Amino acid sequence: MFLARITGSVISTQKVESMVGQKLLVVEPLRVSEKDQTELVGTGRSFIAVDTVGAGEGEVVLIVQGSSARFTPETKPLPVDCAIIGIIDSVHVKAKKIFDSKGEERS
Amino acid sequence: MFLARITGSVISTQKVESMVGQKLLVVEPLRVSEKDQTELVGTGRSFIAVDTVGAGEGEVVLIVQGSSARFTPETKPLPVDCAIIGIIDSVHVKAKKIFDSKGEERS
Amino acid sequence: MFLARITGSVISTQKVESMVGQKLLVVEPLRVSEKDQTELVGTGRSFIAVDTVGAGEGEVVLIVQGSSARFTPETKPLPVDCAIIGIIDSVHVKAKKIFDSKGEERS
Amino acid sequence: MFLARITGSVISTQKVESMVGQKLLVVEPLRVSEKDQTELVGTGRSFIAVDTVGAGEGEVVLIVQGSSARFTPETKPLPVDCAIIGIIDSVHVKAKKIFDSKGEERS
Amino acid sequence: MFLARITGSVISTQKVESMVGQKLLVVEPLRVSEKDQTELVGTGRSFIAVDTVGAGEGEVVLIVQGSSARFTPETKPLPVDCAIIGIIDSVHVKAKKIFDSKGEERS
């Protein structure tokens, strides 16, 4: 799995029937900053993920890929290889809190 | 999943029997532009995807990879790891519409 | 899936029993040239693929990866993650033929 | 599989129900140093892995990805594509011990 | 699949129970040299693979990844995504032998 920030959404009306009603979000994978490991930074890549937890734009989420993306009640029969399975509250690296969803809302 | 633009097609007469009649398209994955996130840009990579939604050259589509590419009625028994499962109408990033399939047709 | 050129072959006598008799080919993935998109160019990477269609060195083929490589009658029970499932006749990009297997034989 | 060092952890309260109670760790993949192959070095990438062996921050572990991450008693029904399946005691490359978990604790 | 050289081994005593007794080897993927395609060269990457054919350090082997790594009698129930399924005798590229396991033993 990896962490990602939701940056947007996608609308597709002409699609595989089983995908009707599914929320499709644009996510940018994040990684821990390489030098000092004190923050989450974007990777510049773009994936489209199906949402299973009611996540919204700007939030940092947990993403699962591949066949495992179908191992939730909502995604079981779907042709999806990327699903949001959790909203991140906080990330701790080397005994330091490097991300807090509440701190972000204030700034 | 990821977004891609259909740039071409492939013809193969000598192939696995189950693939006879399948439309094989050349697609270039797209990503959101890194600096300002205001457009979709090509990645320079090339994949071959099977089409399940009647997509055509020039269109921006949603691509699913891996075993999940077999989770549509058309692709279930096929040896395919990459399928087009939707045609994209629009993409919104940071509250801005960065792609609109209609805008493209006019320009 | 992706396009690749068959550049060679591999011999292994000491191997998993189910693989005895399988033809193992060296393939180099190809991509559409980035600037003008008028030719197929090598990527410099090397994969080993099992052949299911009687392909030979020098030919451009269609490759499937992952669990889907087992979705052909020949590869169903095999420990393979990369199979050749078609020989490419021609590739068209932006309304231009950028590859033709017959043109290649003449040059 | 690959080797990785556990660098941190992630807290997510709003998540897929089956994931409640699962320990989610931040891991950085390691590789053997390229020139002399005498040490393990970080790759700067970040993954989130579920723990099945009671591993802790700072430890070097063995990571399995994809559908195989669900092949442990704990992870079988989970939407996970990355699991810690062993804690590494030592790594030997070219007849030399390049990592020893005990040596690390002393330094 | 891809070719790799076995460069070392890994010891892990605290691990998933099904993995007890499995030999874990460090492998470096190889590719055909890009310019003249006359030799196998290292890629600098490091994977951990489970051995199913009795391979040893220094040997060049055939590696299968993903769910297909579980398609051998030994690995069927294991949480592994990377297995050695053959020891390479020779590699031929563009009608030239670019690797021979016997030539290596003499040098």
Provide an overview of this structure.
Five copies of one chain form a homopentamer. Chain A is mainly beta and 107 residues long. Chain A has a single domain (2-106), classed as EutN/Ccml (OB fold (Dihydrolipoamide Acetyltransferase, E2P), Beta Barrel). The first copy, chain A, is 6% helix and 47% strand. Chain A has one helix and nine strands. Chain A has one helix at residues 101-106, and strands at residues 2-11, 14-15, 24-32, 40-42, 47-51, 60-65, 82-87, 90-93, 96-100. Chain A has a five-stranded mixed beta barrel. In chain A, a hairpin with a 2-residue loop joins strand 8 and strand 9. The longest helix of chain A has 6 residues, at 101-106. Chain A is elongated. The mean pLDDT of chain A is 95. Chains in contact: A-B, A-D, B-C, C-E, D-E. The interface between A and B is medium-sized, with 33 and 35 residues. Strand 8 (90-93) of chain D pairs antiparallel with strand 1 of chain E, so a sheet runs across the interface.
